[in-house]
């Protein structure tokens, strides 16, 4: 199997049908918040691969991926059943959307985009910068980390799915508060880009990761 074998250090629930997968860091693996990896494993003789964006603010002895569980999926339910000690393979890191600790940030997330958004907000605070988080999801994940960010002074806004007016208002409110990082599926990231432009900003300056 291609990729680097890594050990599953821990698996924990971080929301409704959402887990955080903590993996041991292989030698030479140096990733920044915003980047992603290709995870490989074999299930019932079939090799399965998926891309996951890092959800840890830094890579130390371990790093974290946040995985939404699709009950009908061929990989995520298997990952959710792991207990730690198993081996999976990773390739990467990949991606040019990174946070290197240089600016204030506005992290905007739809659904599974919360992982990298929270990681970037935490990394900004660790670097002594301000952070705002705008997160749209009917069943929020990583609520403990969002609460910790809010307690540490971050502006955290959580919106229901479909609240287009609320999303536009939140984007406009934070338009001048830092570098925009946007993570989510196509409809969501396009809505955020439109909201930036409608508020008088330039969506071309936003760092946007479209999950498809």
Q: Quick recap of the structure?
A:
The chain is built from five helices and eleven strands; from the N terminus they run βββββαββαβαβαβαβ.
**Radius of gyration, taken over Cα atoms and rounded to an integer in Å:** 17 Å
Shape: globular
Number of domains: 2
- SSE sequence, one letter per element: EEEEEHEEHEHEHEHE
Distance between the termini: 26 Å
Strand order of the largest sheet: 4-3-6-1-2-5
Number of strands: 11
Kindly identify the CATH topology of the largest domain. Answer: Rossmann fold
Query: Under the CATH scheme, which class of the largest domain?
Result: Alpha Beta
Number of helices: 5
Mean pLDDT: 96
Textual characterization of the structure:
It is globular and about 50 Å long. The chain is of the alpha/beta class and 212 residues long. The chain folds into two domains: 4-93, Elongation Factor Tu (Ef-tu), domain 3; 105-210, 3-Layer(aba) Sandwich (Rossmann fold), CATH 3.40.50.80. A hairpin with a 2-residue loop joins β1 and β2. The chain has helices at residues 76-80, 114-126, 143-151, 164-173, 186-198; strands spanning 4-15, 18-24, 36-43, 46-53, 62-68, 87-94, 105-110, 131-136, 155-159, 179-184, 207-210. The mean pLDDT is 96. Residues 1-100 form the FAD-binding FR-type domain. It comes from Natronoglomus mannanivorans. This is FAD-dependent oxidoreductase. InterPro entries: Cbr1-like_FAD-bd_dom (IPR008333), FAD-bd_FR_type (IPR017927), FNR_nucleotide-bd (IPR039261), MRET (IPR050415), Riboflavin_synthase-like_b-brl (IPR017938).
């Amino acid at each position: 199997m291609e990729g680097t074998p890594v050990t599953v250090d821990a698996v924990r629930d971080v929301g409704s049908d959402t887990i955080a997968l903590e993996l041991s860091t292989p030698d030479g693996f140096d990733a920044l918040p915003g980047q992603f990896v290709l995870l490989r494993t074999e299930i019932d003789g079939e090799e399965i691969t998926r891309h996951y964006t890092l959800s840890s603010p830094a890579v130390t002895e371990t790093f974290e991926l946040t995985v939404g569980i699709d009950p009908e999926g061929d990989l995520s339910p298997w990952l959710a059943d792991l207990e730690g000690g198993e081996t999976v393979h990773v390739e990467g890191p990949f991606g040019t959307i990174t946070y290197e600790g240089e600016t204030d940030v506005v992290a905007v997330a739809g659904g599974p985009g919360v992982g990298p958004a929270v990681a970037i907000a935490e990394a900004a605070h660790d670097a002594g910068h301000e952070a705002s988080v705008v997160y749209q999801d009917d069943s929020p994940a990583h609520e403990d980390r969002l609460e910790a960010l809010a307690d540490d002074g971050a502006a955290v806004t959580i919106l229901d799915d479909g609240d287009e007016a609320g999303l536009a208002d939140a984007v406009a409110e934070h338009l001048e508060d830092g570098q925009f990082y946007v993570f989510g599926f196509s409809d969501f990231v396009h809505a955020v880009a439109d909201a930036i432009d409608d508020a008088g900003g330039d969506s071309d300056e936003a760092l946007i990761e479209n999950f498809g």
